[in-house]
Design goal:
CATH architecture of the largest domain in chain B: 3-Layer(aba) Sandwich
Largest sheet of chain A: none
Strand content of chain A: under 5%
Oligomer: heterodimer
Strand content of chain B: 15-25%
CATH class of one domain in chain A: Mainly Alpha
Number of strands of chain B: 12
Number of helices of chain B: 13
Shape of chain A: elongated
Radius of gyration of chain B: 21 Å
CATH topology of the largest domain in chain B: Rossmann fold
Helix content of chain B: 25-40%
Structural class of chain A: mainly alpha
CATH architecture of one domain in chain A: Orthogonal Bundle
Number of helices of chain A: 13
Number of domains of chain B: 2
Radius of gyration of chain A: 22 Å
Order of helices and strands of chain A: HHHHHHHHHHHHH
Chain lengths: ~300, ~350
């Protein structure tokens, strides 16, 4: 039975990917929830890209004449303790969240891809050493690891991206390695070696493209996780610093003092985080089901 | 056919111009136990002292049942495995001693065609890319336009429409894919091609096409084949000389017709008698020699002659003494002292 399963798995890897149009059609037809998630993701990305056009006010301008005002037509989501428009800050916060989220997720999963494929391809002691390092990194809770990195590197968007990236690398490397181990045994890799191609070429051109399914699944999972991690770090005061608009930061200042007197200062940033993470997770799950049915319910 | 015939005649007897010389090749895979401190608890003796030569323009067949080590021999020649012991000498140079630069040269001289056409092509690459990649990487043809022309030419040589260059492997049939595999092997202008069960995954009619293609290509470019197979009729049709392997060792090596018409080693006899004859009358009349038992494990091979537990002619000496390949008649060697003793 086990032998049969590996055989089927290997055969799956040999089928070329469906085109993008087919993937989109399948997503909407078979994964309506995923399509909703994709729509939410699209809205977030659009908000990040066109923040300057969508926002009604400058997110960093204080207006002491309009502090802690409730939602109105002038301020859709109300204002915070400095009189800044919350709607505008959320829209601009999307830019921060997407920048950190996409950078960290793409960096984390890509480095993880490279580490995982190299580990599987070289095997032997290289694999052993790489996997033990991965073990050590995985033993730390992600947030503790991220906190350590932020404390070492300082605050700001750059260090936050690095801090969120590092805990993702071992997770992705593990998953990718197991797929790459199966690919390494397929004759086209031997054929590439017999052709005298270099290791880098074999890793990048012959093995990596054939493990795009697990890679993309890890990437979309990481997007939601990275946004949540950025919000957590900002909330703890170790992430993005004022006055840069960031959802975690808004939640922090709102929650501490005005949760009862001005709930809009808390509810809307919290909602933004939830919607973003929910959207990315819905989209990621659906993408996983479409790309790689074997991983379903795992 | 006349070309192939003349090559066949030339290759009888000693060959001064051996392109590939394999001498005492051993490939032992360690069997390890334990998670961190891995202990070697045994050795799989996949190939255990194999020697043969392949001349220029010659096809040497390597036959034997599953697990006898014939594929591993091919992989050692290609340096996809590092042999435990023994020499593989290609064109006068020892493959094992080569540095990186020399290896790249070897990679262009020695190529491989795999058994399974479905897994030997990268599913994410177009056919044109698969065939042109070696040309680009090794700088054989630097101009992209000329490279495309060469790809079209190679596809044409292998009997495929040059338009296939824009297709992906999954859009093609097994026979077409195998032709792509051949075109890829030809792209670097090799002198020697290892055909690892190159036709056994194909339908019989497609097999015939691919075999004819391989023959035509040999007549055209005069390269040598190591033809690894278990289908004896294919081997008889294609090969000039044939080596029979059993449990990591060559037991008999002779010219193709000599081996099929006058087999001497008990294992070869049993192997040939297992091939059915497509005539019920002859099939019924001829004597079948069915071997008893299973192939022993290569981790713990029998003492002396590895074939003795299943051999109908085994003597007490076969248990003790490891036989070596000795000349039976010129060009026909076998590793069986019993048969050789009867001759004398």
């Amino acid at each position: 039975m086990a032998v049969n399963e590996t055989y089927i798995e290997v055969q799956d890897e040999l089928i070329a990917p469906p085109g993008w149009r087919a993937v989109t059609a399948a997503l909407i037809r078979r994964q309506p929830l995923g399509a909703v998630g994709a729509l939410m993701v699209l809205i977030m990305v659009a908000a990040a890209l066109f923040a300057d056009q969508i926002a009604m006010y400058d997110p960093e301008i204080n207006d002491f004449a309009a502090m802690l005002e409730g939602p109105s037509t002038a301020h859709l989501f109300g204002t915070d303790e400095f009189g800044r428009d919350i709607y505008s800050r959320i829209v601009h916060g999307a830019r921060t969240a997407m920048t950190v989220g996409f950078s960290a997720a793409i960096l984390g999963s890509t480095i993880g891809l490279f580490v995982g494929v190299s580990s599987a391809y070289f095997g032997g002691w290289v694999d052993n050493i790489m996997q033990r390092i991965v073990d050590v990194l995985m033993a730390f809770p992600a947030i503790i690891l991220a906190l350590t990195v932020v404390i070492i590197l300082g605050r700001g968007v750059g260090p936050v991206i690095i801090a969120i990236t590092i805990p993702m690398i071992p997770n992705c490397a593990r998953v990718v390695r197991s797929s790459a181990l199966a690919i390494r045994e397929i004759p086209y890799v031997d054929a590439a070696r017999a052709m005298g191609f270099g290791h880098l070429r074999i890793i990048l051109r012959h093995i990596s493209p054939n493990i795009m399914a697990p890679y993309l699944i890890m990437l979309t999972n990481f997007l939601g996780a990275a946004i949540l991690a950025e919000a957590s770090l900002s909330y703890l005061g170790l992430g993005v610093q004022e006055p840069t608009p960031a959802w975690g930061l808004m939640l922090k200042s709102g929650a501490e003092e005005y949760a009862e007197s001005a709930p809009w200062a808390v509810i809307f940033p919290g909602l933004a985080i939830s919607v973003a993470v929910f959207g990315f997770n819905l989209f990621g799950d659906a993408l996983r089901d479409v790309l790689d049915p074997k991983l379903r319910s795992r | 056919m006349s070309v192939a015939g003349s090559i066949k005649d030339e290759n009888t007897g000693p060959q001064p111009e051996a392109l590939v010389r394999v001498d005492g090749l051993k490939m032992h895979f360690p069997v390890t136990e334990g998670l961190f401190m891995q202990r070697v608890v045994g050795l799989v003796k996949a190939v255990d002292g194999v020697s043969f030569t392949v001349g220029v323009g010659e096809t040497l067949g390597l036959v034997g049942e599953s697990g006898c080590g014939k594929t591993t021999v091919g992989r050692c020649i290609l340096r996809l495995e590092n042999p435990t012991a023994g020499d593989v000498i290609f064109d006068g140079n020892d493959v094992a001693d080569m540095n990186m630069k020399e290896m790249i040269g070897l990679r262009q001289d020695v190529q491989v065609i795999f058994q399974d056409p479905f897994s030997s092509l990268n599913p994410r690459m177009k056919i044109g890319t698969i065939i042109s990649e070696p040309l680009r990487v090794h700088g054989i043809i630097k101009d992209p336009q000329k490279r495309q022309e060469r790809v079209a030419e190679l596809l044409h040589i292998c009997g495929l429409n040059p338009r296939f260059a824009d297709r992906y492997p999954h859009e093609m049939s097994g026979g077409q894919r195998q032709r792509v595999g051949i075109a890829r092997a030809l792209s670097v202008n090799p002198k020697f091609i290892v055909c690892d069960e190159a036709v056994s995954a194909l339908d019989v009619s497609i097999q015939a096409q691919i075999i004819n293609l391989l023959e035509d290509l040999q007549a055209q470019f005069n390269f040598s084949y190591l033809f690894i197979a278990h289908d004896l009729s294919v081997v008889r049709h294609l090969c000039h000389r044939v080596a029979v392997m059993y449990l990591g060792k060559i037991v008999e090596l002779a010219d193709c017709d000599e081996l099929f018409d006058n087999p001497q080693h008990p294992y070869t006899k049993a192997l040939l008698s297992a091939v059915p004859v497509p005539d019920p009358a002859i099939e019924e009349a001829r004597s079948h020699q069915v071997l008893e038992g299973e192939v022993p494990s290569p981790i713990d091979p029998p003492s002396g002659c590895v074939f003795h537990p299943r051999c109908p002619q085994a003597t007490e000496a076969c248990r003790r003494d490891i036989p070596t390949l000795q000349e039976f008649t010129p060009g026909h060697t076998l590793a069986c002292p019993v048969v050789l003793g009867q001759q004398r």
